[in-house]
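Figure 2 data, in text form.
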Amino acid sequence: MDAENAKEEKARAIIRRLKEHGFTAYLAGGCVRDRLLGAPAKDYDVATDARPEVVRRLFDRTVAVGARFGVIVVVLDGDQFEVATFRADAPYLDGRRPSDVRFGSIEEDARRRDFTINGMYLDPENERVIDLVGGIADLRAGKIRTIGQPDERFAEDRLRMIRAVRFAARLSFDIDPATLSAIQALAQSINVVSAERIGEELTRILTEGGAAPGMELLRGSGLMSVLLPEMLALELCEQPANFHPEGDVYRHTMLALSMLEAGCTETLAFGVLLHDIAKPRCRSVSGDKVTFYGHSELGAEMAREILRRLRRPRIVEERVAYLVRYHLRLCMAPRMRRATLKRMLAEDGFDELLELSLVDALASNSYLGYYHFCRQARNELEMPQVRPSRLVTGHDLIAAGIAPGPRLGKILREIEDLQLEGALTDRDQALAYLRQRLAAPEPN
């Protein structure tokens, strides 16, 4: 039994136990949607008429993550399942959570959910789908539509506006016109949602397989002007046709994003999104020549600012800044000294840099010569050759009489370069070079 089937069976076991004690219980939400689409489910949520305190009594390991709102997490063999009591929500005063809840019927529970495709239930005992909101019809039509009035649903939780975009992009669905109009009307209020929640949703849009259509929907809905205003400056930022026959920087970025696969890393996704983010600020025209000097360096700083604004982890910020700063460096690889090339191949983010260079090239003039050069070099060189153990260390240089400082670092790098180029192959040779180096006068 694979992991997904095993997890579903655990969810079914939770439902059976609830039913054995006289309660109603169903699979609910996204897992029902995914089942009807023939897609693997990420999580299995359970909806029931059992009250939270009853759920806690019936299962050995539980966590009261939202008992006030009727949500108890049941833990079975390390897997977690949200078990939520049917409820009706009081008004959402903070644009995120209901001010209060009242436990109620399945009909009330369905009406308080976000989108029709997420508002269905499944009785696993007989595989019966309970659809009280038109979710099946919207799945067939490929439509994202709110349950009830869209402005009311979005007023309850503004994040639902970005979730609508995410579902539409990932599933290749359209957003219902009334739902889209409500998003456009309310887009400027999205910042009442915490930056962390916004950052998580944007990351999912970029990594779940619908990055390009997701960005287009953000732009068309008005959300991009609030969340990623820097992206709008890429439109109509024209590029030299000989290098970029695809058109302006925005068009180029969308083409690159369209090549990202579902499940790609967050860092690669943001690297592709932001690799040319500074081009509008760096664009210069002299006669018929258009240049973007410095856009990689400025882009790295802009990427840091954007990711900090979205409250992404520091490790993500560092890697994306590296990708943006060096996304053109592979072009120079065939002319690099062997030591410089090896150092680049050994960098922690190089594999993602290689992927970024591939989609960058395919989204422009499709020249892949330097990409294949670097990939071949990476494949030919074993990691011990690319990142060998040092023949000498800073301690060896200090013992030889070199004081800590710039000169020590310079000599240590010289020895490492010679090692990477194959001129020094063992410690004795490195120490002999060091003695010879110290005996010679220091060049001016």
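Caption note: Residues 141 and 173 are 8 Å apart (CA to CA).
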